[in-house]
From TrEMBL:
It comes from Allopontixanthobacter confluentis. This is Metallo-beta-lactamase domain-containing protein. SUPFAM superfamilies: Metallo-hydrolase/oxidoreductase. Gene3D superfamilies: Ribonuclease Z/Hydroxyacylglutathione hydrolase-like.
Amino acid sequence: MEHLAENFWNIRGDFKIAKVLNIGTHMSLVRRPNGKFVLLDSYDLDADDQRELMALTDDGNQIEAVLNVHPFHTVHCKSIKEMLPHARLIGTRRHHSEAAHLDWDTDLIEDEATQQQFSDTFDFSIPDGVDFIPEDESIHVSSIIVRHRESGIIHVDDTLMFLDVPALLEKFGPGPRLRFHPNLAGGLEKRAGAADDYIRWAKQLGQDWADTKIICAAHKGIMRLTDQTFSDIIDKALEHSMQTLDEHREKYG
């Protein structure tokens, strides 16, 4: 559990593909201006992290809500609800269908009205031009990106991925360390203009959140910006994905 700003903590976790490749996952704890706490995403904490979380939040009693911001991150919702039965469990419409047995709050986090309830603490952004909940459940391109307004820290799941590789390896695989999801081609809506909508959204995100200095990415770590702006690294990530975007434009217009 890493204390990144006065009112922001990030907890790193494990998530293994085929029980072998650990691509990581995370959950963030944020203290709101009213003194209450909110969790971003769900994770089944180990004993040390749970002890620290409970110590910060009066045995969890000060945690008022859990915002699950990626429709396909559902594995740990049950354990979080069991740990915090009093907290509002807020998710996407897919959370409601995939884990209907849980006591979900009726509000959906993808809805602007729900996001407005937390606007004193967070900014939210959902990518344009991609399916938020695609029929092909192997495509996890879209999610709700959250920015803590006070600290400027971004919490993001699959939409943006951080390649935390040693400097030596970067020489053999050059490219931006922050990248859009590798299955962007599958996630783009099958219509004319989707690629341009995605580019427009990404560039606007970079400009609006340009002063961001820390990005907490589920896959696979915490990125600290020193000599470049968030706008710069978004532009580089777009350049890396431009072939995909161009091919989509050629096919659909």
